[in-house]
Amino acid sequence: MRVIFVTANTNKLEEARRYLEPLGFEIEQMMIGGKAPELIEPQFDDLEKIAISKADQAMSMVPESQKSDCAILVEDSGLFIDSLDGFPGTYSSFVFRKIGVDGILRLMSGNKMKACEYRAVSVLVLGERKIIAEGVCRGKIGEKISGTGGFGYDPIFIPDDSDGRSFAQMSREEKSSISHRGKSLKALSEAISSPSM
Ligand code: ITT
User: Fold this and answer.
1) What distance, in Å, lies between the first and last C-alpha atoms of the chain?
2) 79 CB-near residues (< 8 Å, 6+ apart)
3) For residue 86, is it left (φ>0), alpha (ψ between -120 and 50) or beta?
4) Over the stretch 134-166, which tens digit does the pLDDT of each residue have?
5) Ligand 1 centroid distance, CA of 94 (Å)
6) Per-domain residue ranges for the chain?
7) C-beta of residue 115 within 8 angstroms of C-beta of residue 82
8) CATH code of the domain made up of 2-193
9) How many CB atoms within 10 Å of residue 33?
């Protein structure tokens, strides 16, 4: 199945390719005039509402003639810190650009409650259907930056399902086997292959 992923984040694109291509999906990035289209992200506290809004905007950009021979994928994700009431949450991308991982480490210094989670909501539009799948990865904010892999908050995110290494210290395969994105894409791929589809 040909899937057009509407994202400006090439790290997300690469993770989706690694995950979905071995399952037989062909992943392309949506480009309009040589650039990823800019979607408006409404200011909701809910990833699913944002992802559905992005999916609707993306669908309005696909020519009618192509709608039947491909699926459209969008994803919204973020880092939710328990003791900060879920901040930066749906604002993760903006907060990362403004204060980066150093800013989060500053905010968390002296705070012993480091528990947090990454969440991802993927929406696949297939003809008239929208398949929505969430993935959650629990972890904690590290004391310092560790590792150089991954992207975004990965150098300070230590997943619970690991030996104490941050996502930035793991291989891509290791990260996607336990990550929020891996889980949401797994749920999507299972929903697509289920007999009720
Ligand atoms: P698109 O909207 O174009 O897909 P984006 O990066 O703006 O790209 P989001 O609005 O969903 O995407 O923001 C998600 C942000 O959350 C992302 O920019 C990172 O800062 C953070 N994030 C999400 N998943 C992550 C991951 O696996 N590793 C590190 N940071 C992640």
Assistant:
1) 14
2) 88, 89, 92, 104, 116, 117, 118, 152, 153, 157
3) left
4) 999 999 999 999 999 999 999 999 999 989 999
5) 9
6) 2-193
7) yes
8) 3.90.950.10
9) 5
CA 176 to chain centre: 11
Token pair of 99 as six digits: 């204060």
Query: How does strand 71-81 pair with strand 2-5?
Result: parallel
CA 78, distance to chain mean position in Å, is 7
Residue nearest to atom 2 of ligand 1 (CA): 7
| 3-state SS assignment for residue 5 | strand
DSSP 169-183: GS-HHHHHHHSHHHH
Question: By the 8 A CB rule, do 42 and 49 touch?
Answer: yes
> Does 117 sit in the ligand 1 pocket, CB within 6 Å?
no
CA of 31 to the centre of ligand 1 (A): 18
- Rounded Cα gap, residues 166 and 21, in angstroms: 25
pTM for this prediction: 0.95
CA distance 47 to 49: 6
